[in-house]
Description:
Blueprint: E1 3-4, E2 11-15, H1 20-32, E3 37-42, E4 62-66, H2 72-81, E5 86-89, H3 96-101, H4 104-127, E6 134-140, H5 165-184, E7 188-193, E8 195-197, H6 206-216, E9 220-223, E10 229-234, H7 235-248, E11 250-251, E12 253-257, E13 262-264, H8 265-279, E14 290-293, H9 308-314, H10 322-335, H11 337-341, H12 346-355
Parallel strand pairs: 2-3, 2-5, 3-4, 5-6, 6-7, 7-12, 8-10, 9-14
Antiparallel strand pairs: 1-11, 10-13
Helix pairs in contact: 1-7, 2-4, 4-5, 6-8, 8-10
Amino acid sequence: xxxxxxxxxxxxxxxxxxxxxxxxxxxxxxxxxxxxxxxxxxxxxxxxxxxxxxxxxxxxxxxxxxxxxxxxxxxxxxxxxxxxxxxxxxxxxxxxxxxxxxxxxxxxxxxxxxxxxxxxxxxxxxxxxxxxxxxxxxxxxxxxxxxxxxxxxxxxxxxxxxxxxxxxxxxxxxxxxxxxxxxxxxxxxxxxxxxxxxxxxxxxxxxxxxxxxxxxxxxxxxxxxxxxxxxxxxxxxxxxxxxxxxxxxxxxxxxxxxxxxxxxxxxxxxxxxxxxxxxxxxxxxxxxxxxxxxxxxxxxxxxxxxxxxxxxxxxxxxxxxxxxxxxxxxxxxxxxxxxxxxxxxxxxxxxxxxxxx
Length: 357
């Protein structure tokens, strides 16, 4: 049964902390709680970038560990040695297109990796002497499937109906996390968020891909008619929601975090092109680069998040409007071109060619 447990944090283990949302969370947490310690565990796969943490590397309350969440012994050692009281579990394979081309990695990382983390947490936090703790699992709205244009937004009571290997792997990991509370008594919470955008996002995702291709004069690929609808959430608004859940959320509770900000993909591309016309007039109008490509298999038509629960219970409210958030994002990518250029290597280019045929 869910119960209110105000949790006090001191030493956090952040998995996937060199990824997009994870690195933003690390920056957010160390700035907001300068007296607390953050340990990042990241395998540095294609989407993990140590450079995303460069600004905090010298912070004495930060430690980076290059390792895999599947290494249960390593996780146990970190939990004990660092006296970790809170796990924030971001680490995941997260791109739907890649899950279609190669689902095996998603099953291994998202399902087996999450189970590895839970096993380690159970052993250190429960079997070696019960201690205050919180295991927060970061998930996605894609576990709920797709919505019709006039359907009500997803609530936490929606049935899980995943339509891609990525979404199915995240749905499975959600269920495993829940089971570890009900079976073993681990203090767990889950958040399901809508599409994030902001700094440090790998340029395979829509917004940074459009920015990069505008700068290089390359086609802007958009699936099908481009009228797929997503709810967009600025990454630090997501981190604020996680912060509230960790400290004030009810154990065994799931919270949806959304931006109340639905846009079609083609309208997103149009808006980003307009901003690029202002900041980088060479090549304008950039919308001329728009190129429709074959829609991907099983492409969900619409996602939308109803964030009533987290607002009512925890007082959550996004701070960024889409207008301010998207402008900050475009300006960040223009000012940090060296960061995203270094990850666009040969393997990334091969993947683009294979995916956007």
